[in-house]
Amino acid sequence: MGTVYGSPTITAGNAPPLSAGASAILFMTRSEAEKRNLKPLAQIIDVIAQARAAREIAVVPGQSIAKILERNDMTLDDIKLIEINEAFAAMPLVSTKILAKNDEKKWKELQEKTNVNGGAVAIGHPVGASANRITMTLARELARRGGGYGIAAICGGLAQGEAILIKV
Asked: Residue 12's pLDDT is what?
């Protein structure tokens, strides 16, 4: 498969296709939801944003996940599912490898609970809606599995990284 965009490494096989899509998330307090007789799908526990050097783009989602776990006094064992946006196919692999701290068994466990329904390489990358897409994919899959904690992480703007911790 040939490279694209003048890159020596990016191909149509390891980068997601740009795709059309839209996403919406309705945010409100629990009391407002109760007042409106709405049942929340998920509770946002925390959100984190950080930036790294541009050459570190592949590591920033994993580092964002590690930071949000530390800030909330949680471990990966507390997390039922993880969604990591595939800006490139390597992103979830690099991020889970970092989180596993070179423990091959832990890395395999993390891979089994990351992007369980596929990622952006398979689904597509709806520009401007990817963060919502992975958050809603995570919330719906947690609900389908009976609830629990989940983290969605994404990179953007070269090596900017965000993560959201939710509970369903």
From this structure: 61
pLDDT tens-digit map of 79-120: 999 999 998 889 999 999 999 998 999 999 999 999 999 998
Prediction pTM value: 0.89
How far, in Å, CA of 161 to CA of 35, rounded?
35
**16: nearest Cα among 164, 130, 166:** 130
Is-contact 71 48, C-beta < 8 A?
yes
Judge contact between 107 and 139, C-beta under 8 A.
no
* Distance from C-alpha of 119 to C-alpha of 88, rounded to nearest angstrom: 10
Could you give the domains of the chain?
Answer: 41-167 (3.40.47.10)
DSSP string spanning 46-105?
A: EEEEEE--GGGTTTHHHHHHHHHHHHTT--GGGEEEEEE--SSTHHHHHHHHHHHTT-HH
Q: What is the DSSP letter of 164?
A: E
pLDDT of residue 75: 98
Q: Which amino acid is at 136?
A: M
Answer for the pair 72, 58: CB distance below 8 angstroms, yes or no: no
Residue 115 CA to chain centroid, in angstroms?
Answer: 8
Residue count of the chain: 168
The rounded distance, in Å, linking the Cα atoms of 125 and 85 is 9
